[in-house]
Write a structure and sequence with these properties.
238 residues, alpha+beta, 7 helices, ATP-binding, ATP binding, ATP-dependent peptidase activity, nucleotide-binding, metal ion binding
Length: 238
Amino acid sequence: MRKTVDKRNFEYAVERVIAGMEKKSHTMSPEERNTVAIHEAGHAVVGWMLEHTDPLLKLSIVPRTNATLGYAQYLPSDNKLYSTEQLFDRMCMALGGRAAEAKIFRRVTTGAEDDLRKVTDLAYKQVVTFGMSPRVGNVSFPVRKPTEPTKKFYSDKLAKLMDEEVRILIGKAFQATDTILEENLDKLKALAEELLTKEVLNYDDVVAILGPCPFGDKRVRFSSPEAASQSHQSLVTS
């Protein structure tokens, strides 16, 4: 019986909780593997080049039992307050997979569904709840969920303005994301190629390809990197 737990054991346990066990019975087609690799590399490159994103710990394109074909593991921030700049960077990183697919393959897949849901939710919260839209103003309303009974807190005119602001905000985030990928296209392709070869990349592997993070090693912001982990999961199977 094992009496001690080392870093490798801890990381293995975290992976199982986050993404499930490796699904050895699932074999992706070459086209799927290429798409997953570009998608995950897109998230990684965009997050790497932005200041207000969580530190990347690991990338994987190994299918898992919770239906993910690829995932990225990050060290989560314990921030309780977020600025518009921080939220914008998070939106950009979430859009990195979809933007990378569009740029490399000139097409998109259903794999970005969860990413888009998160981005849309975050955009609506900024406009509707956090009072971060100058056009809407310093007001705060609950974001109505589709499953909840319809209850109007504001006029149809204001609702239309909110929808417009959300679309504008997401559009700006996607454009910023696309620009980052265009400026780092060689790195995007190199990271995806390495993912296809190794299937799993750790922090040092990513540094070797992308170079040092422009904003320094973000992991130093956390006193105990081994104490917490969180994932960004994408490309769920339908």
